[in-house]
Write a structure and sequence with these properties.
Oligomer: heterodimer
Structural class of chain B: mainly alpha
Strand order of the largest sheet of chain A: 1-2
Radius of gyration of chain A: 22 Å
Mean pLDDT of chain B: 87
Low-confidence stretches of chain B: none
Helix content of chain A: 55-70%
Order of helices and strands of chain B: HHHH
Number of helices of chain A: 7
CATH superfamily of one domain in chain B: F1F0 ATP synthase subunit C
Order of helices and strands of chain A: HEEHHHHHH
Number of helices of chain B: 4
Low-confidence stretches of chain A: none
Number of strands of chain B: 0
CATH topology of one domain in chain B: F1FO ATP Synthase
Number of strands of chain A: 2
Structural class of chain A: mainly alpha
Shape of chain A: globular
Largest interface: A-B, 20 and 14 residues
CATH class of one domain in chain B: Mainly Alpha
């Protein structure tokens, strides 16, 4: 990402938005985020379809062992951190982890990571917010929802209301800023190194080492952390 | 002062401001270093707990990083998506 590309990154009318149809004055505009997101969904769809085909009661193939390992990992992550009552939440946490992970790693294939678009992660943050509120209501009723805002003393009400919104917000910004920072720093280093000599052969190799940290390590860690934080926010909203 | 002078002034001030915003990078640096140091102490005392300790450290580090990332978002906004340019009122 060069500085010029970077400036367009933040521009709502920029080239990240493609007009795919113009039907009677109604312009159908689609962003690159959505397209790469579809690729991620398609990729996981194919992977899980292959993993889940003709399963046996006693695993015979490596494919089934891999599938069972993955599912067991999701279930133990959820159950160890939230308790047996929340086993059902695996159906949200598992796919969230997969989706976020592959979205972060799409940068390696030359796409723009969908997770470096704040609106995609904001959607997950909003889901977390509603899950927390619904879980409070489910376990404590309307009284639990109200009394949780008055803890530990009643005049903490404004701070508690702010904190209800700031938790999903900080979760969103952390993930977004990490992935964006990876792209921006990688792009700036690439841009700087390629300007040293004509031809730009100095840019070969060194950005790869940075990409190892910013794209792979940071991407994997952030996906895991986002899922863990969702788990802990929802679990701590249990009023029972 | 016309619009161009105003924009130049705003962009210059924004560049200084985004640099100043990144001073916030000190905080997470110290915090994460402290966190990692304590983890090394804990692993030295109880090497068999290394897996759990490392996992906890990485999660803690990522959360401690948040304030630094807020500063980064502010700095990037000032540099590349400045909300103040073109808002000249005479």
């Amino acid at each position: 990402m060069t500085p010029q590309l970077l400036a367009r990154e933040f521009n709502p009318q920029g080239p990240l938005y493609h007009k795919i149809a113009d039907i009677g004055g109604f312009q159908f505009i689609i962003s690159e985020t959505i397209i790469v997101q579809w690729l991620v969904v398609l990729a996981w769809g194919i992977i899980f379809f292959i993993l889940g085909r003709n399963l046996k009661e006693r695993p015979e193939s490596r494919r089934q062992v891999a599938a069972e390992f993955l599912v067991t990992f999701f279930i133990t992550t959820v159950v160890e951190n939230m308790g047996e009552n929340y086993r059902k939440l695996t159906v949200y946490i598992g796919p969230l982890l997969c989706f976020s992970l592959l979205s972060n790693l799409m940068g390696l294939l030359g796409f723009r990571s969908p997770t470096s678009d704040v609106s995609m992660i904001a959607a997950w943050g909003i889901i977390t917010f509603f899950m927390v509120q619904i879980n409070k209501f489910r376990t404590g009723g309307i009284g639990g929802l109200g009394s949780s805002l008055l803890q530990p003393v009643f005049f903490m009400l404004p701070f508690n209301i702010v904190s209800e919104f700031s938790n999903p917000l900080s979760q969103t910004l952390r993930h977004f800023a990490n992935i964006l920072a990876g792209g921006v720093i990688g792009g700036l280093v690439y841009f700087a190194l390629s300007g040293i000599v004509p031809g730009g052969w100095t840019a070969i190799g060194i950005p790869a080492a940075l990409s190892l940290y910013f794209d792979i390590f940071s991407g994997v860690i952030q996906a895991y952390i986002f899922a863990m934080l969702t788990i802990s926010y929802v679990a701590s909203a249990d009023m029972a | 002062m016309d619009q161009n002078t105003y924009n130049a002034l705003v962009l210059g001030a924004s560049a200084i401001g985004s640099g100043a915003a990144m001073i916030a990078g000190i905080g997470p640096g110290i915090g994460e270093g402290y966190c990692a140091g304590k983890t090394v102490e804990a692993i030295a005392r109880q090497p068999e707990a290394q897996g759990v300790l490392t996992r906890t450290m990485i999660i803690g580090d990522a959360i401690a990083e948040t304030t630094g990332l807020y500063a980064l978002v502010v700095a990037l906004l000032l540099m590349f998506a400045n909300p103040f340019t073109g808002k000249f009122v005479s």
